[in-house]
Write a structure and sequence with these properties.
By secondary structure, this protein is α/β, with parallel strands linked by helices. It has 20 helices and twelve strands. It has four domains: about 140 residues, Response regulator (Rossmann fold), CATH 3.40.50; about 150 residues, Rossmann fold (3-Layer(aba) Sandwich), CATH 3.40.50; about 70 residues, Orthogonal Bundle (Helicase, Ruva Protein, domain 3); about 60 residues, Orthogonal Bundle (Arc Repressor Mutant, subunit A). About 5% of the residues have low confidence.
Length: about 450
């Protein structure tokens, strides 16, 4: 049976933790101050410390007793406190109110990790993002991964579904890293036409092409010394992927139309919602670039896997959106309950958009359950297009007469052509935008256009 030190500011604050640990079979020693905690640690025999969020005290304990893991249990809604606690040396951060089973599980992991020779050590880094919000176990892992990766210079690939907050995670990596005092430059690879992305990234010399009347630095040079965030890197063309691989390997770039190379020192963070491994199999993404990008990976969970975070995010968004829109952000308990039960396929971004629309509708009144249900209701199915109906009828008539056919393939192909045509018309010919609406990559769209 192992001894655990529970340091709390008062017996009332510490008793729930102590009771939970005793139920798990641990012996608990309690203290009400840092001095008492240090004295208990000096006596020895303790396997772990549970304490509130106090960075100077945490650093003191870690400095004097580096082999004893520390679990921080405190109030926190956002990522800053959790990330800073882990970067200061804590094994993990558990927000209040805590789940007893989760606390005991974390304590067991932390005690076991103390004997792991590969345990990762972190230094303290000042900084706060305050943008990622969530207290779920899934987000706790994200904060812990950010804390570990932020202090390193490695390239990071941030993965997650659309709307999970990949750019916020990239900003947190930058904020808590050694380059936080240097620029963070953001490039959305899907939003820039393919023929312009190369010059946007690498810059160009005067006269490199029509309209290049002066030389211009690209994003890599603008981010020199700092961090470059490449969002939706899966939309990058294969020729540009080859140049990106060379930059990551050699830390040198060449401007469009240039004759000499420029040395750069840039930390690259990339992000995608696409299955890059599948794209490698299809030949639309380079395998060697994928290996280079995911020297380290950070995976953001979908909102449906973040138990309890939907309500917390709702309150967070209402406060900020209310201030932004100049209204009172109020919501009923029934509406909160409905929000907590939704799968949110569009993740955090969808939740934020629904709340924005609800606030604009209600202004200073309370958002009701009916308001949320109305905004979440699926759009009414449109009537079947008359042209497609006629095409289906003709294809089936032909197949029936011949005794066989490919009626379904004909109709699906025509529907695909019509949808692509509509998407290109609405986007003004912007293939990147059309591809996003269609839910395919720009490279896939180009292949379909060729056919």
């Amino acid at each position: 049976m192992r001894w655990v030190l529970n340091w709390a500011s008062s017996p009332a604050a510490g008793e729930p933790v102590s009771a939970c640990l005793r139920e798990g079979g641990y012996k608990v020693r309690e203290s009400a101050s840092l001095a008492e905690a240090l004295a208990a640690l000096q006596e020895g025999g303790l396997a772990l410390v549970v304490m509130p969020l106090d960075l100077p005290a945490l650093q003191r304990i870690q400095g004097d007793f580096p082999t004893i893991p520390v679990l921080v249990v405190d109030q926190a809604e956002g990522s800053a406190g959790a990330i800073e606690a882990v970067q200061a040396g804590a094994y993990d951060f558990l927000p209040l109110p805590f789940d007893g089973a989760e606390l005991r599980s974390l304590v067991a992991e932390a005690v076991a990790s103390a004997h792991d020779e590969d345990n990762f050590e972190l230094g303290a880094i000042e900084g706060s993002s305050g943008e990622l919000v969530g207290t779920s176990r899934a987000m706790g892992k994200v904060y812990r991964d950010i804390a570990k990766l932020a202090a390193t210079p490695v390239t990071v690939l941030v993965r997650g579904e659309t709307g999970t907050g990949k750019e916020l995670a990239a900003r947190a990596l930058w904020t808590h890293g050694h380059r936080a005092h240097l620029p963070l430059v953001v490039v959305n690879c899907a939003a820039i036409p393919e023929n312009l992305l190369e010059s946007e990234l690498f810059g160009y010399e005067k006269g490199a092409f029509t309209g290049a009347t002066v030389a211009r630095k690209g994003k890599f040079e603008q981010a020199n010394g700092g961090t470059l965030f490449l969002d939706e890197i899966g939309d990058m063309s294969l020729p540009l992927q080859a140049k990106m691989l060379r930059v990551l390997q050699e830390k040198r770039i060449e401007r469009v139309g240039g004759r000499g190379e420029i040395a750069i020192d840039v930390r690259v963070i990339a992000a995608t919602h696409q299955p890059l491994e599948k794209m490698v199999e299809e030949g639309t993404f380079r395998e060697d670039l994928l290996y280079r990008l995911q020297a380290a990976s950070l995976v953001l969970p979908p909102l449906r896997d973040r138990m309890g975070d939907a309500e917390l995010l709702t309150r967070h968004f209402l406060a900020h959106l209310g201030e932004e829109l100049g209204v009172q952000g109020k919501i009923s308990r029934e509406a909160l309950s409905l929000i907590a039960r939704q799968p949110w396929p569009g993740n955090v971004r969808q939740l934020q958009n629904v709340l924005r629309r609800a606030l604009l509708k209600r202004r200073d009144l309370v958002i009701s359950r009916e308001d949320i249900a109305e905004l979440l209701a699926p759009a009414r199915e449109p009537a079947v297009d008359h042209h497609l109906a006629e095409l289906a009828r003709a294809a089936l008539d032909e197949a029936e007469e011949a005794g066989e056919g490919n009626a379904l393939r004909q109709v699906v192909a025509e529907a695909e052509r019509a949808t692509i045509r509509q998407a290109l018309e609405r986007s003004g010919g912007n293939q990147s935008k059309a591809a996003r609406w269609l839910g395919i990559t720009r490279l896939t769209l180009r292949e379909k256009l060729k056919k």
